Amino acid sequence: MTIKAMIKENNRLREQMTPDNKDYFEDIVVYFRTCDVDQTESEQLLLKLAHQLLESQEQGIQARQIFGPTAEEYSRNKVQILPKRKTIAGGQYYVMIPWVALTMFFFMESLVGFVAQWLGGSMDTFNRISLLSLIVIAIGSILLVEAVTKLLNRTTEHEDQVRGQGNTKPMPKPNLNLRTIGIYVVVTLIIMMIGYTFRNLLPVFTIQPWVSLFIAVIGLIGWIFIFKRK
């Protein structure tokens, strides 16, 4: 089962629990999903616990009789046996973002270049790449990812709070901090304007489409073997 399917099944099973058992089990769910553990292993264990609780519930046994007096203590002990979530942290994270952005940039450059060659157009515009443009892409990609990450984190925290309170009503739309998003957008635009205005201050390279494609392939291979497998 995929993680999404396991979460959906978990929600279905919770609806079959008594109010006390449901409150207890939801405390376990919230604890698991807010810990730094592997999500697949975590959801698999939650499904196993849900089935175990429902089987005991049919026999008149309550959650506290199975797992202990407090859900937090039980969850704390259980998460210790789960593998930690694989993440890219620190400097590697901020290297990976521009790495992927520049890989995509060179792939698009090669694609546009090959199409221009096929159409018989001039290659002067498509072959010339400014070093400053590459710097702008790298910095802009980090700012964009940071903005999106902050937005998604706020949404996730909001959903966890609602679920932790046992609220079955449709969740309201999260309150977007437009000021923060606006700041990131403005900073990104300023960087792009600076890059465009002073693009000739730093060296400008002439790169053939096949060279851009080669760089993109190297970037993709590097992303797989350096970042993705961590």
UniProtKB/TrEMBL annotation:
Source organism, top-level taxon: Bacteria
One Pfam family of this chain: DUF1129
Keyword annotations: Membrane, Transmembrane, Transmembrane helix
SUPFAM superfamilies: BH3980-like
Membrane-spanning ranges: 93-119, 125-145, 181-198, 210-227
Descriptive protein name: DUF1129 domain-containing protein
Organism: Paenibacillus antarcticus
